Amino acid sequence: MAQRLGQEISLFCQDRDIETRIVQNDLQTKQIKVEPNLDLVIVVGGDGTLLSVARKIKGVPFLGINSGRLGFWTELNPENWSKGLDQILDGQFKLSPRLKLAYSIPELAEQGEAINDLVLHRTGLARLLELEVEVGAKKSFVVRADGVILFTPTGSTAYNLSAHGAICYPELRVFGINFICPFLSLAPKLLFPESTKLRVILHSDQIDAMLTVDGQKGIVLRKEVKIDIMSSSSDFILVQKQDFNFIDKLQEKKILE
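Above: the chain's sequence. Below: its structure in token form.
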């Protein structure tokens, strides 16, 4: 379906003298090469496809056309995409810049970005992880839990919502932390300004742990590994119709009545 729809969109744009190129998203590649004068990336797929592509291309607005299940951040539907795309190409749209997270694991020479969330979780026996969180290298606290979710406003409606975290308006310049099933601790859910730098240290021994990036990439961790987290220097930018309303979207997806 996605391939056929991509061909139809390409012909639709060419009829309006807009140059297009169809690119297949290979899940194994870390980067998609694009032309320097690229104005817009149209992604046909669900939220997962949109996140995957957006981590590989920077500095360009994205427009999603849903061919997946939920399609929370995809703006157009397969049934009426041509009408919506026509309006957007005529300038009837707005841009929604979103904060991304940047992470670095010096011991493993790993670094990258997340649009939805970073999840540190156990993978083996049902033992708790002992997690120390340093805030700005001045204050720290320790929580024992099944794991921790570090989420962006965009990702606040993903795993964070399932773990009873706060929903954030997507354009807020904050990111949050939400512990998964904390043990004997209130472990409040916290929001940080975008200038904040966090370090999460895994103290647990003899427990298999993993860092999952946007639910699509897993990095196996060992004891005493340190993960540095901060806001990215670039934004994830979505193209939306002019009448987009976040509360309407929450009601459409049955998150609010």
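The mean pLDDT is 92.
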